[in-house]
Amino acid sequence: MAEITLSNITKRFGDTLALDDVSMTVPNGAFVVLLGPTGAGKTTTLRLVSGLDQPDAGRIEIGGTDVTRMTPAQRNVAMVFQQYSLYPHMTVRENLGFPLKSPLLRYDDAQIARKVSEVAEMLQIAHKLDNKATALSGGEMQRVSIGRALVRRPEVYLMDEPLSSLDAKLRADLRVELKNIQAQSGVPFLYVTHDQIEAMTMASHVGVLDHGRLVQFGTPREIYEDPVSVYAASRLGLPRINILPADLFAGAPTGARYIGLRPEQIRQGDGAESRVIRVEHLGDQTRLHLKFRNHDLITVTDAHSGLRSGDIVQITPDAPFYFDASGARVH
Amino acid sequence: MSHSVIARAAEATPPGLARRFKGLSDRAIAWSFVAPTIFLLLAVNIFPLIWTIRLSFTNFRANRPNAEVEWIGLRNYDRILTDSDIWQTMQATAHFLCWTIVLQVLIGFSLAWLINRKFKGNDLWTTIIVLPMMLSPAVVGNFWTFLYQPQIGLFNYVVAFFTGADPTSFSMIGSVSLAPWAIIIVDTWMWTPFVMLICLAGLRSIPDSIYEAAECDRASKWRQFWTITLPMTLPFLMLAVLFRGIENFKMFDLVVQLTGGGPGNTTTLTSIDLKREAFEKWRTGYASAYAIILFVTVFGLASIYVKALNKVKER
């Protein structure tokens, strides 16, 4: 376990700028989630930290040591690959034991067997230990891939969408397990996901990447409550933040071009009239799709709301975000 | 088996096709498609095999078609299996087979491993390496007799250059101890590229991401080779061994061209011996028994081997 520092990292693949002058510190014991759409540089960041790729410029430190030119083995990192990358000719047991058999670790067979069965138990794949790695479902493969990282205690865990192909129940279970491991071991996590809930519940820090640039880095609450741009604001929140022309409502500051309204920033009961298009009862809440002066809005209302489509709801912005024409935040 | 194929073909034939062939059932149509192939197989494979088995119990000679054919039971087999000359050709064949396979697999795999690194011009190198395989065995045999020439041969000159020995002091083809190696060297020169191509296919079938995972799992290059590269290319390697084994068991042209089976009987492989018995000495019955013995041997070895191959593939 160690603090990880990226200083002014730049990485190009041919003409594409994958990472552009990224600096970030992953504090010891932190759980950093990287957010951003495909091509934003999330996986590249993981690969650079792991040592599978070398940056074109910049410095990477793990625990104060410059590891920029070191191999993955020297860095002692564990990575969960998005495409699983299991060893296809080995059984699940052999896959999980593989990292432990590294001569660098000096475990005896009994220790290896114990650690493998612990991890298999936790990931609910104990009954598949003697299956061949290719004779598994996608979700099982993904769990083996996670297990192969979790069997040892590296300096840092790097995970590239590790829960993406699991069903909802298992995903919720493993979120808790991963959080526990992070809390107990103190090993920092660098974690890529598209899942809002994973980002909000697991992250101690969130890094928002946009076309290779780190546009915001902070706690999930900071990103959620104080986004620097439309882009950063759109990364978190379910339903997504509504972005509308600022002049739809009174009170926009000068320079503001857009108004950003999260569901809780839309107060219902007074103000301008909007029409309900659709009502979605989700159990714990109700989602309202509204039409407001030819603009679509999604907001949340009381779980037992009796609203129906066609009804009229009055709405007012409540401490909204304002953004300028480039999408940057205006205060 | 043919019945189930017919049944399946009949099932797969769309309804309505029968209407165009008036009076024929679907089954009859399916048969009419399959029959030529079955007939051809029977005519050129099954019938000769059965006929050979029959002849192997007789003293028939093809150059004397009018002579009376005598039924002599197992006497041909008895004579072959107790003939020390034939055992010597078997040994020569085994020696040739084992060494060509060992050398071709070792060199072929190493070459494939080197070519598989990403470097500039590796396509060109692959083409150059594969060249010998594209030549006719007769041509290869012929020009290697020149390379092996003690007086003017390049091979002797190169050996002399590195060892300091006199190039005219040894003759690869003329010497009883060197001739078996002469044919092994030429076959290895010619067919190693083939093994290399198969190994290359095996190596290329391993995705980079597997090595990346191993890299992150802190496996050294050495360990990656033994735990990933080798096990994952093993089915390909075994396939190469199967191909080369079958090919070299029936090796004929190259060796006839190079040594003609000599000196003495040292490079007389079974196929050469068999050809002599059948078409020079015209002992057709005897040669038939010989062929059946070889067939059973190859068939037995190949089926054991294919079973092992399938086991490796399943792993």
Automatic annotation (TrEMBL), chain A:
Pfam families in the cross-refs: ABC_tran, TOBE_2
Family from the record: Belongs to the ABC transporter superfamily.
Keywords: ATP-binding, Nucleotide-binding, Transport
Gene3D superfamilies linked: 2.40.50.100, Nucleic acid-binding proteins, P-loop containing nucleotide triphosphate hydrolases
Annotated SUPFAM superfamilies: MOP-like (SSF50331), P-loop containing nucleoside triphosphate hydrolases (SSF52540)
The keyword Transport is annotated on this UniProt entry: yes
Superkingdom field: Bacteria
Protein name (Swiss-Prot/TrEMBL): ABC transporter ATP-binding protein
GO terms, molecular function: ATP binding
Domain ABC transporter stretches: 4-236
Automatic annotation (TrEMBL), chain B:
Protein's recorded name: Sugar ABC transporter permease
Localization in the cell: Cell membrane
Membrane topology per record: Multi-pass membrane protein
Keyword tags: Membrane, Transmembrane, Transmembrane helix, Transport
InterPro entries, per database record: MalF_N, MetI-like, MetI-like_sf, Sugar_ABC_transporter
Record family assignment: Belongs to the binding-protein-dependent transport system permease family.
PROSITE patterns attached to this UniProt entry: ABC_TM1
Pfam families per UniProt: BPD_transp_1
Top-rank lineage group of the source organism: Bacteria
Primary location class: membrane
Bilayer-spanning residue ranges: 29-51, 96-115, 127-147, 154-173, 179-203, 224-246, 287-306
